[in-house]
Amino acid sequence: MRNKIVAGNWKMNKTLEEGKILASEVVNMAADEAPSDVTVIMGTPAIHMDAVGKLVKDAANVAIAAQDCSAHEAGAYTGEISVSQIKSVGAKYVILGHSERREYHNESNELLAAKVDTALAADLKPIFCCGEALETREQGDDVAYKFVCDQLTASLFHLSAEVMTNFIIAYEPIWAIGTGKTASAEQAQLMHAEIRKHIAAKYGQEVADSVSILYGGSCKPSNANEIFAGADVDGGLIGGASLASRDFIDIVKSF
Ligand SMILES: O=C[C@H](O)COP(=O)(O)O
């Protein structure tokens, strides 16, 4: 059975003090309210990770993620953060390939393949994002499916079946991120099913069935339940609604 995951992506929000308050609230609420089979992850800004890492250290069901990592292991890369630095503050996950990194930092499928390899070599689990822009979706559903599957082929399909087992993918239609416009539950499920079919064609059904596919894009307490009901939807990658502990935990409870 694959893992259910709700991961918050705080993006570039919250001061350190605000972040510590939010993280404490999430840890406490998750202990009391989160279903035991759901992994809760907070993707914090890099400067929060040490403090938040300490707050989640003893939490059974909460972990932290970095929002990016360098493809290099160490060295003269000003402003970058390495996988060993991320590991050293207790993070287990790293979000890679977010559309904002692809768009504003020109991250290509090839660079992302290198980042995936660097993360995996350090035993850091990628949450690998994919998703199409509005103009792609408007060319038709099949065009969108192919675009997303091509992203996965280019950045992930060099991996072994063993590594792909239990992998985490986040489908985030760019047109639904921070816009208030959510993909319908049906649109999300159809894309997730295409992604799983694509993985099965390369790695076999057993591996495909082990991959957790999260939905991201204006997911909130009012729509999470319907979206998570999709047979191939295994949770969410949550932006705006992860900045309020009550909303975030209500999403965690939406399976
Ligand atoms: O990483 C999270 C996604 O970009 C979704 O963001 P959003 O929930 O604010 O639309």
From TrEMBL:
Family from the record: Belongs to the triosephosphate isomerase family.
Origin species: Persicobacter diffluens
Coiled-coil regions, chain positions: none
Pathway: Carbohydrate biosynthesis; gluconeogenesis; Carbohydrate degradation; glycolysis; D-glyceraldehyde 3-phosphate from glycerone phosphate: step 1/1
Chain residues that bind substrate: N9, W10, K11, G178, S218, G239, G240
GO biological process, one term: glycolytic process
Compartments it resides in: Cytoplasm
Cited PROSITE patterns: TIM_1, TIM_2
Pfam hit, one: TIM
Originating gene: tpiA
Designated name of the protein: Triosephosphate isomerase
Keywords assigned: Cytoplasm, Gluconeogenesis, Glycolysis, Isomerase
Gene3D superfamilies xrefs: Aldolase class I
Active site: H98, E172
Enzyme Commission number: 5.3.1.1
GO MF terms, alphabetically ordered: triose-phosphate isomerase activity
Reaction equations catalysed: D-glyceraldehyde 3-phosphate = dihydroxyacetone phosphate
Biological role stated in the UniProt entry: Involved in the gluconeogenesis. Catalyzes stereospecifically the conversion of dihydroxyacetone phosphate (DHAP) to D-glyceraldehyde-3-phosphate (G3P).
Record-linked SUPFAM superfamilies: Triosephosphate isomerase (TIM)
